[in-house]
TrEMBL record:
Entry annotated with the keyword Metal-binding: yes
Broad enzyme group: hydrolase
EC number, UniProt record: 3.6.1.22
InterPro entries per the UniProt record, alphabetical: NAD-cap_RNA_hydrolase_NudC, NADH_PPase-like_N, NudC-like_C, NUDIX_hydrolase-like_dom_sf, NUDIX_hydrolase_dom
Origin species: Bombiscardovia coagulans
Gene Ontology BP terms: NAD+ catabolic process; NADP+ catabolic process
GO molecular function term, any single one: NADH pyrophosphatase activity
Lineage per the UniProt record: Bacteria, Bacillati, Actinomycetota, Actinomycetes, Bifidobacteriales
GO cellular component terms, A-Z: cytosol
Nudix hydrolase domain segment(s): 208-333
SUPFAM superfamilies: Nudix
Protein name: NAD(+) diphosphatase
Chemical reaction(s) catalysed: a 5'-end NAD(+)-phospho-ribonucleoside in mRNA + H2O = a 5'-end phospho-adenosine-phospho-ribonucleoside in mRNA + beta-nicotinamide D-ribonucleotide + 2 H(+)
Length: 345
């Protein structure tokens, strides 16, 4: 290399991702209100409460939303009920447990999510169970239901943030049912953001478990992108190297380990690109860009069965021919590849 000559590396232009669909929260979480007893009733009296509906991974949306989502046109919004329309069974469970999650406030409005699955679980007597069942039946017919992955790419920013929090809390509240210390049942606390053990004695409080994972845009010296096919995917779906962070491991160390484990690729420089929650059920995706130190790839044959380097022209041709299907629009991988590609996918 000529000592007087300057060389340019596209890697030096790597910037954080300007948009990630599940990282759009625009409300003030108002964490100081979460442990306030009777919060929903207090705020409802001000007639400034709006309530969304969540059932598993599905969100209640106005009629016509499914068609717009399938067509990929128009902006989607949540079905938001005024607080006074919320049925009387809310907050009637033993110990003050509630199927409502306080999501935060914005523009002098306060937002809650009503978890229909949790409401059904908390129904302890026949009259309450019937009221919950009747409300769920009405909700199923009066609204359309859309999963978060379909809603997020075209949803209003505020509503996507609300929906992401609601789905994450619902997934946790409905899956963790017992105290990990003594085995007694748990119940919701802090307006959905915590759980408490029901066993008598010292109070045990629990928070939602988050499982961080890294995902890496690996490029070589020619600025080609490394794409990989996971054995669990349909044949033409290709994405980026990703994996969970292990105990005692940093994000950066996890990036290097996953690249070696799955692809036998040593990495040099790396840069942070962004992060977004991935509540399916409880991940946090942390994105990096990394420079490969070799072009030689050896797949592990277990998680990854095929990998290939592509230039932008080669990727464009593969997309047009349908030999490569890009990651879904809700995923961080979609926007990482899009940034490298220089065009919308």
């Amino acid at each position: 290399m000529d000592a007087q000559q300057t060389y340019f590396s596209p890697f030096s232009l790597a910037q954080t991702l300007p948009f990630l669909p599940l990282a759009q929260s625009q409300v003030d979480y108002c964490t100081h209100l979460r442990r306030q007893s009777g919060l929903f009733q207090q705020l409802s009296r001000q007639k400034k409460v709006l309530v969304m509906l969540v059932q598993g991974q599905r969100l209640g949306v106005p009629y016509g939303s499914l068609e717009r989502a399938q067509q990929g046109s128009g902006t989607l919004s949540l079905a938001l009920l005024p607080g006074e329309y919320v049925p009387s069974f809310v907050g009637s469970a033993p110990g003050g447990s509630s199927s409502l999650y306080f999501l935060g406030s914005a523009s002098e409005q306060h937002f809650f999510a009503l978890d229909l699955d949790l409401a059904k679980k908390l129904s302890t007597n026949s009259s309450t169970a019937k009221e919950v069942g009747d409300f769920i039946d009405r909700a199923q017919t009066r609204f359309e239901w859309l999963d978060l992955k379909s809603f997020a790419p075209r949803g209003l920013s505020r509503d996507v943030g609300l929906a992401t929090s609601a789905v994450a809390l619902s997934s946790w509240q409905n899956s963790q049912q017992y105290c990990p210390s003594c085995g007694a049942s748990t119940q919701p606390f802090a307006n959905g953001w915590e759980q408490v053990c029901t066993q008598e004695g010292p109070s045990r409080e629990f928070f939602a478990r988050i499982e961080p994972a890294v995902i890496t845009e690996i490029v070589d010296s020619k600025d080609r992108l490394l794409l990989a096919h996971n054995t669990a995917w349909e044949p033409d779906r290709y994405s980026l190297c990703a994996g969970f962070v292990e105990a005692g491991e940093s994000f950066e160390r996890a990036v290097r380990r996953e690249a070696m484990e799955e692809l036998q690729i040593p990495l040099g420089h790396m840069r942070y690109l962004g992060s977004q929650p991935w509540p399916f059920p409880s991940s946090l995706m942390v994105a990096f860009k990394a420079q490969a130190l070799t072009d030689d790839v050896t797949v592990d044959g277990q998680e990854i069965d095929h990998a290939l380097w592509v230039s932008r022209d080669e990727y464009s041709q593969a997309l047009s021919q349908g030999t490569i299907v890009p990651p879904t629009q809700a995923s961080v991988a979609h926007y990482m590849i899009e940034q490298w590609y220089g065009h919308m996918l």
